[in-house]
Write a structure and sequence with these properties.
By secondary structure, the chain is of the alpha+beta class. The chain has 13 helices and 14 strands. Helices cover 33% and strands 16% of the residues. The longest helix has 18 residues, at 81-98. It is globular and about 60 Å long.
Length: 402
Amino acid sequence: MKKLVYFLAVAMLLSSTAFAQKKDKKKDKKVEGYEFTLVKENPTTSVKDQHRSGTCWAYSGISLIESEIMKAGKGEFDLSEAWIYRHAYMDKAEKYIRFHGAATFAEGGAFQDIPYIIKKYGIVPQEVYEGLNYGTDKPDFSEVTPALEGYIKPLANSKKLSTAWKKGFNALLDAYFGEVPEKFTYKGVEYTPHSFAASLGLNFDDYIEIGSFTHHPFYEPFMLEVQDNWLHANIYNVTLDEMIKIIDRVINEGYTVGWGADVSEKGFSWKNGVAIVPDEDKKDLSGTEKEKWEKLTSAEKAAAAYSFDGTAKEKVITQEMRQEGFDNFTTTDDHGMHIVGIYKDQNGNKFYKVKNSWGSDSGKYDGYFFASEAFVRYKTIDIQVNKNALCDNMKKKLGITK
């Protein structure tokens, strides 16, 4: 799931009017036109900023793990996202070369990468591994990506690899992200990355991915066909109504949800803090969100925008509609986020509170936004949940026995 890296900068420009009165996130939320009332919200850590990097998957996936640690009664931790994507880069590189370039080697990734990396390499706190060895105080991959790709991609077409390629690639990773510590001290205790992961008290085999697609049988696992699924991992397949029921149950059971979705729709408005599917047709605009907006005059911008005033009637989303969107690439694996709560608007419509990774000083709600159920039904690629939050009947349907 690849964040449109430069979309954030434009979104922040469009959000020049700050939310004047900042309320505690546990209380009711209000914005012009919309009034959101809390139904259920679960604890999470502070909003982080992926900045100029396509690593939303690492930020949202780590955010979910941090909430899991809080739910387990282990306290609040700030874990290193850089640890995750640095190790993922090495494994991606090896797979890319073994497939002679017919695989993904990019900034993007998927939710299943997080438990995979933690089980294989352990995890460390943010203060131990910040991953900012290139002179900035926030992630910026403008040089990192071409440097890593420039090293790896020619190797995929080489007739014979030298015995030094991994050492050379690790040297690049060290240069940009920092050397990997074998041991470290945290709050007076010495750990290895694996012993620290074990101290968190989680079972990293508990995390599963679920989607809803008709090109595969329901209740059978299948490999999700998106480019950033470089692990070729399977997800579970359920009906659309069941996917929504799973999200609701997980939240109501005190857990949170990793959410992979498409946020390139005109109904997604970071400026207004909402994502909806209005039941009206607007002229489609080509290009990325940034390109769309830059080409429009002020009058065209006003005409192209939906009315985010809380009165929009939304489309009724069917299984067929979401499948069509996936099949024709209008729904793409665009962005990874973290659903932490359920709210209702003033008309009783359900919205999900979503934690983003674009910084706490952007957007209407200090780094959060609200996605309608219709938007989640329509634009979800997959979700990550703790399987222990599923009801017994759903576990049986999916063949989950432990």
